[in-house]
Amino acid sequence: MKKEKTMKLSLPTEELMGSGHLACQGCAATLAMRYVLKALGQKTALCIPACCWSVIDGPFPHSSLGVPIFHCAFETAASSASGLKAGLEMVGDMETTVVAWAGDGGTFDIGIQALSGAAERNDDIIYICYDNEAYMNTGIQRSSATPYGAWTTTTPVKHFKNRPKKDIDAIMAAHRIPYQATANTSYPEDLFKKAKKAKEIKGTRFLHIYTPCPTGWKSRPEDTVKLGRMAVQNCIFPLYEVENGEKYTLNIKPREKKPVNDYFRLQGRFRHLKEEHLKFIQAEVDHSWERLLKLAEPK
Amino acid sequence: MKKVIMGNHALSWGAQLGRAQVIAAYPITPQTQVVELLSEMCANKTLDAKFIKVESEHSAMAACIAASIAGARTFTATSSQGLTLMHELLHWASGGRNPVVMGNINRAMAPGWSIWTDQNDSLSQRDTGWIQFYCSSNQEVVDTVIQAFRVSEAVMIPSMVILDAFALSHTYEVVDIPDQEKVDAFLPPFNPPIRLTPTAPHAFGGLTSPEHYFELRYKLQKDMEKVPDLVEQTGREYEKMFGRYLGQVEDYRCEDAELIFVTSGTAGYTARVGVDQLRQEGVKAGNLRIKMFRPFPFAKVREILTKAGKVAVVDRNISYGHHGVFYQEVKSALYGRDHNVPLFGYITGLGGRDITPEIYKEIAQLTLAKDKPEEDITWIGVKR
Ligand SMILES: Cc1ncc(C[n+]2csc(CCOP(=O)(O)OP(=O)(O)O)c2C)c(N)n1
Ligand SMILES: [Mg+2]
User: Fold this and answer.
1) Do B197 and B284 fall into the same domain?
2) Which atom of ligand 1 has the smallest separation from the CA of A52?
3) Single pTM value for the model
4) Could you say which DSSP state residue A96 is in?
5) How far is Cα A229 from Cα B38, in angstroms, rounded to an integer?
6) CATH number of residue A193's parent domain
7) Structural domain includes residue B384
8) Residue range B16-60, pLDDT digits in tens
9) Which of B241, B267, B284 is the last residue of a domain?
10) Measuring from each residue's beta carbon to the nearest atom of ligand 1, which residues come in under 6 Å?
11) CA of B48: which chain A residue's CA is closest?
12) Which residues contact A200 (CB under 8 A, 6 or more apart)?
């Protein structure tokens, strides 16, 4: 008899996120949640501020997650998580992993003060930012995570965003928190591993997850995973970890660094960009990549 | 145990005796000593609490709310700019039914920077769904904090315990500090009917359609309406154990009064001196100090004021484009009833200008000179 071939799964099959959520087709933010919860397990509590995910989870009295959620105010993901952790410990629960789960707007912009405060205190929370590079919940307005050149409803084509994306990872590194990492839903094993690692560390941990948004990026839902791969291969969104703000580890170094053009072509939000803009962007990406390589050089 | 302590420390003592479990606070003049003493209490382990030294009042309230959802008893304190920075989260605490207890020192709002007292900071939070207690002595502060935990946790509505800047926050008085064991008997540990835990995962405060939202707010109001009776009961129970009664209002020589002042905070304490002096001069004055402003003590106010010849409401606050806030509230309590007490509105003492017994004499004179008020705001002591 022929021996049956079995596939070895790289992620646990246990699901803490059910179907019936309210996300758009091709939403990577849902993948991010699904993978992260696989890593963190059921003893997890989420603080979710205003963002797509405050809708995705489902309306009262429904929830698509098997973990408790505190839906908190837009700018309070970090401070709510700090409070929740303290509260749980005071009632005898020392175990639960408390996670602040916020969008890029809630992290880079309105929530950065609370995040900085929690990180400086090294409160025992995992802060996770899923980054779709704009305020998507309110209908695609620019955030400080929106990349140079992008169209949004507040950066119309004639006045596209002319400042680079804020380097939130450098900001977090400057807080010298024990652990931080960038991750990407197109690299689920890497994301899973980082979430697991974060869970085992005490203090403030920060995960920055790149999550394509077909609705806001004007991309095809079926390109979500592809875009995520491209962003790593062309070094627009490199995957790396930082420990104590100092020890940089590059997780994926593309064998051959791809040009940015193809990535831009798949997204309607960049359609207006001319050759000269793309050249400028390529130079910026190269520059950032070189800088990161230096930081990650063995010392 | 009797101790001479300042008003701010009375708040800290209240929080310690109430066994607050999570404290998150940010310093602001004239509240600073509240958090300083609490830091010490936590460091010395006389209080077993986690003190989160947040980077803003906004985060302080957010942290308290989240800790409360986890089932912990929470306390914070602030003042003026800090309180108003929290505004969004004040709605969050009441809407989420989180019985946070907070001290607020009444300080006038900038600009012009002021650190002195008036009530516009807390009164402009009146529609946020918080219970509000205004205090006039340090003893009352300690007693009120302890009772606020009881009342708040019974109805799952947050409470604010309010002190005048300097006039109370920095005034030293003898305070009878209740015994911890007796307080423990009066105030059992916080045990909310539902709390956030992975053991029974729920989503708190998610998207709420018109199908459900209305009822949530209806329930908040219905529970607010239970507070006056609850404060009476709790107050009587506290009185039995500690010998001091704390109710919704304090009426002083109102029985036969031809003129009743309506006051709050420390100005309500001074008013008693004014009343005594007026009585010596043959004017039958009385004072109704409103201790609980939210929910408004309609029944008490009606019961006491309808016996008066005239009523003079003294406001250390103003609702711009309207009148003094207590004046509005008393008017709305009395409107549409059979009786028709002439109601006079006075605004004085904004930004910490002193309210003295002489001011009450002036107000009495002005009120007694007229049959009916000719204006809704009579300004006392303003330089024009
Ligand atoms: C104080 C406050 N300001 C504005 C809003 C409106 N608002 C809700 S979600 C949102 C944008 C969220 O963007 P982001 O954090 O990037 O998450 P996304 O929606 O993209 O998932 C805004 C502006 C709010 N809820 N609260
Ligand atoms: Mg976003």
Assistant:
1) no
2) 21
3) 0.97
4) P
5) 52
6) 3.40.50.970
7) no
8) 999 999 999 999 999 999 999 999 999 999 999 999 999 999 999
9) B241
10) A 50-52, 74-75, 102-106, 132, 134-138, 143
11) A90
12) none
